[in-house]
From TrEMBL:
<keyword id="KW-0456">Lyase</keyword>
<feature type="domain" description="NAD(P)-binding">
    <location>
        <begin position="2"/>
        <end position="283"/>
    </location>
</feature>
<dbReference type="InterPro" id="IPR036291">
    <property type="entry name" value="NAD(P)-bd_dom_sf"/>
</dbReference>
<dbReference type="GO" id="GO:0008460">
    <property type="term" value="F:dTDP-glucose 4,6-dehydratase activity"/>
</dbReference>
<keyword id="KW-0520">NAD</keyword>
<comment type="similarity">
    <text>Belongs to the NAD(P)-dependent epimerase/dehydratase family. dTDP-glucose dehydratase subfamily.</text>
</comment>
<dbReference type="InterPro" id="IPR016040">
    <property type="entry name" value="NAD(P)-bd_dom"/>
</dbReference>
<dbReference type="InterPro" id="IPR005888">
    <property type="entry name" value="dTDP_Gluc_deHydtase"/>
</dbReference>
<dbReference type="Pfam" id="PF16363">
    <property type="entry name" value="GDP_Man_Dehyd"/>
</dbReference>
<protein>
    <recommendedName>
        <fullName>dTDP-D-glucose 4,6-dehydratase</fullName>
        <ecNumber>4.2.1.46</ecNumber>
    </recommendedName>
</protein>
<dbReference type="GO" id="GO:0009225">
    <property type="term" value="P:nucleotide-sugar metabolic process"/>
</dbReference>
Length: 311
């Protein structure tokens, strides 16, 4: 039995759940992990034995202007959830974190023992939440597991993230907006590969451990834009590609790379399987048909005003 708890914030859509909503072993509950009374009641009334905690504010640009909200949801909300799960004596609590907690690196690859050095409010809130989760293992031996993954892409993703945003902009004959030079690189994992990684950690991950979920596939944001322009606008001309790119002010901090070692989860039997060409083709096709799945989706396509003052 799978219970899906979601706040249905601006980036959520029940349309994404239509294919599973009628299944007998699935139940959707709308609620907020920051509501401690609600969360406590949920664990008292539902027979929950495993928690996969994905809930978070995640848009890095937004974190610079809504830092307090990110702290509240990502840190306080996580503390509420792990506390209630511990009280309910669940069998396993998986906290989904991010490669961004390591900060950036041009050459050194991060492993699970690398120090956390976050450089933006989003990453800082995730790193702080990790500390709360890990403390329940250290103090109570409560069976928590932490994952840190590379960027995830695929169908159903709200188009504030770079891949669906560029796809949607190009499909609406608008330019890709690129922060700074666009030479920052990111590692991209297809959604089904990440699902397999979580299932692997669920079955084989050891309590108290951290697992990087990474990929060797790496691409600069500018490369990404050009590849999507080639696929959607069907052009190889450099000059024509430049017509579809709009350079905007960079973020206050924008890490150049997040290189990670993932041998630890490889040891559990997981490796990414979906090649980039296959994954990006499926993703483009999905957005061609389903762009309007969200309310106020047009707002996601606007360049985000990352301007001081920051709070």
């Amino acid at each position: 039995m799978i219970i899906n708890l979601d706040k249905l914030d601006y980036c959520a859509s029940l349309k994404n759940l239509e294919t599973i909503s009628s299944k007998q072993n699935y139940k959707f509950i709308q609620g907020d992990i920051c509501d401690s009374h609600f969360v406590k009641l949920l664990f008292e009334t539902e027979k929950i034995d495993i928690v996969l905690h994905f809930a978070a504010q995640t848009h890095v640009d937004l974190s610079f202007v809504r830092a307090f909200e990110f702290t509240y949801v990502n840190v306080y909300g996580t503390h509420v959830l792990v506390s209630a799960a511990h009280e309910a004596r669940v069998e396993k609590f998986i906290y989904v974190s991010t490669d961004e907690v390591y900060g950036g690196s041009l050459d050194k690859e991060f492993d699970e023992s690398s120090p956390k050095q976050p450089t933006n409010p989003y990453a800082s809130s995730k790193a702080a939440a990790e500390c709360f989760v890990q403390s329940y293992w250290e103090r109570y031996k409560f069976p928590v597991v932490i994952t840190r993954s590379s960027n995830v892409y695929g169908p159903h993703q709200y188009p504030e993230k770079v891949i669906p945003k560029f796809i949607s902009l190009l499909q609406h004959n608008r330019k890709c907006c690129i922060h700074g030079s666009g030479l920052q690189t990111r590692n991209f994992l297809y959604a089904t590969d990440v699902v397999e990684a979580f299932l692997t950690v669920l079955k084989k991950g050891k309590p108290g451990e951290i697992y990087n979920i990474g990929t060797n596939f790496e691409m600069s944001v500018l490369q990404l834009a050009k590849e999507l322009i080639h696929l959607i606008k069907e052009t190889n001309s450099e000059s024509e590609m430049e017509n579809w790119v709009d350079y905007v002010n960079d973020r206050p901090t924008n890490d150049m790379r997040y290189p990670m070692k993932s041998e630890k989860i490889h040891g559990l039997g997981w490796r990414p399987k979906v090649p980039w060409k296959e994954g990006i083709k499926k993703t483009i096709e999905w957005y061609r048909e389903n762009f309007h799945n969200w309310k106020n989706v047009e707002k996601a396509l606007e360049p985000f005003p990352v301007q001081p003052p920051f709070v």
